[in-house]
Amino acid sequence: MRLIYLDFNATTPIAPAVQEAMLPFLTEHFGNPSSQHAPGRAAHEAVEDARARVCRLLGADRDEIVFTSGGTESNNLALKGVAFRCGAPSAGHIVLSAIEHPSVLEPAKFLESLGLGITIVGCNAQGVVDPRAVAAAIRPDTVLVSVMHANNEIGTIQPIRRIAEICRAAGVLFHTDAAQSLGKIPVRPRELGVDLLSVAGHKMYAPKGIGALYVRRGVDIEPLLHGAGHESGLRAGTENVPYIVGLGRAATLIEHNLDRFGSQVAMLRDRLKQRLVDSVPGLSVNGGAAERLPNTLSANFPGVHGGELLRRTPELCASTGSACHSGAENLSPTLSAMGLGPDTARGTVRLSLGWYTTEEEVDRAASLLLDAWENSR
User: Fold this and answer.
1) What's the pTM?
2) pLDDT level of residue 206 (50, 70, 90 thresholds)
3) Which residues are marked as active site?
4) How far apart are the first and last CA of the chain?
5) Res 287 pLDDT > 60
6) For the chain, which terminal residue's Cβ has fewer other Cβ atoms within 10 angstroms, N or C?
7) Do 265 and 315 form a contact (C-beta atoms < 8 A)?
8) Where are the domains of the chain?
């Protein structure tokens, strides 16, 4: 059975060029980047070359990029780093949206348990956060606002620039989780106006276990890991050279191919949506009236359970929502925040396309889902 992979929002395969770039640093180039001999200098140069590549993609300066183990660490470093640096968590306040990834919501809950104030703002029925709600939630003791760039479940793109303007006017730092957007749409922290931005390598054709945090020059945060002062003192620990090299090469691939791949994936996503809408009476699309990522289709199949629909299509690799919630039967926070009723949400299937998705796969996926829907009712 040939599998059809439509779960690129959960993770992406490593691009061949990324794997090729990594291999020498898994074998002959094994030096510690902090060592002064030739193997160490080669490793250090590789890390800095990768940093420069990530900087070019983001439009950032070299001292603004901190390599981490992935999106979760980046989000934890952003929230906890700001909170601890600002005298929290015994004092202070953070504003979040209700549709954030658990790697933002859970650190916030941890900080709340230590005394930090938390306000969670909702979204509209399309899954978009209202900047006015963020403005109303900011208090005199607010130290940080965090709103994701694009939602991982339904793909809606948030009004980050407008929220950034509100935060800047209030003198509040602003963080955005760009794990799902980077590699799908342009992501430039300075254009967005953010102070901190999280990157996850495995969402952008690099390996799992590598990521980065953009920290705008002049923003001070407390490190989570203390040690020998790597990454300008913000992330102690010997650098993961092969994976950092992979992230750098993935950044270059995105820089050179984003427009082409973006339009190609959007065309296939819309083809898939049209096939389903034309054949399933009552099918609805989550966030369909909002600006969305070009690769994401979150569809509600009426009269069936999304999990059962996918169990009937073992050839198709997709999910009922975020990979972080797909094992649970309860309504996801995003769908709940949108006001989606349980009867509708139970039929949700998330289909996320990627660079390697073909027209043939899209048509086959539509046929599989339609057959399963007919047989499940």
Assistant:
1) 0.96
2) very high
3) 324
4) 25
5) yes
6) N
7) no
8) 4-11+258-376, 16-253
Q: How many CA atoms lie within 13 A of 323 on its CB side?
A: 13
Q: How is domain 16-253 classified at the CATH fold level?
A: Aspartate Aminotransferase; domain 2 (3.40.640)
Q: State which amino acid sits at residue 337.
A: A
Predicted confidence (pLDDT) at residue 19 exceeds the cutoff of 90: yes
Residues 274, 66: Cα–Cα separation, whole Å: 42
- Beta-bridge mates of residue 197: 176, 214
For residue 16, give both structure tokens: 């061949």
Length of the chain, in residues:
377
Question: What values do phi and psi take at 27, rounded to 5?
Answer: -125, -90
Residue 85's contacts (CB-CB under 8 Å, 6 or more residues apart) are 220, 221, 222
**Residues 138-156: tens digit of each pLDDT:** 999 999 999 999 999 999 9
